[in-house]
Amino acid sequence: MNEVKDTLRAVVRIGFDGRVYKTFRGPKAAERFANEVEILKYLAEKKCPFVPALLDADPVKLRIVTTSCGSRVDYLDSERMAELFTELERYGVRHEDQAMRNVTYRQSDGRFCLIDFEFAKILEQSSNDAADK
Fold this sequence. Notes:
Layout: E1 2-6, E2 10-14, E3 20-24, H1 29-45, E4 54-58, E5 63-66, E6 71-72, H2 78-89, E7 93-94, E8 103-106, E9 111-114, E10 121-122
Antiparallel strand pairs: 1-2, 2-3, 3-5, 4-5, 6-8, 7-10, 8-9
């Protein structure tokens, strides 16, 4: 496995199979784990096409396994970045950590994607959000 991130809050590795393995640690690790699992399941129900798919969640190890959303982005202009996070809100989720480190680029379809939903919030939505259209 290739280690991508090792911080006080999480260790992220990419397996040789392309899957992303994120292990939560540090302050409120269980709470952040549960939140990210909930958000990813919610976005899957809404069929959001630019976030990772949750493949497995282990509440004992505080580890999730997701699909990869491509590689990290070194630069994205502020206007395009704002559009990307606004697009996520149309699926009923506010990211709450709108930083370049949470934007990836998926070369297979030329799509910018978002990752890292441990602080995200599900918004109260009416039935006319983007995912229902």
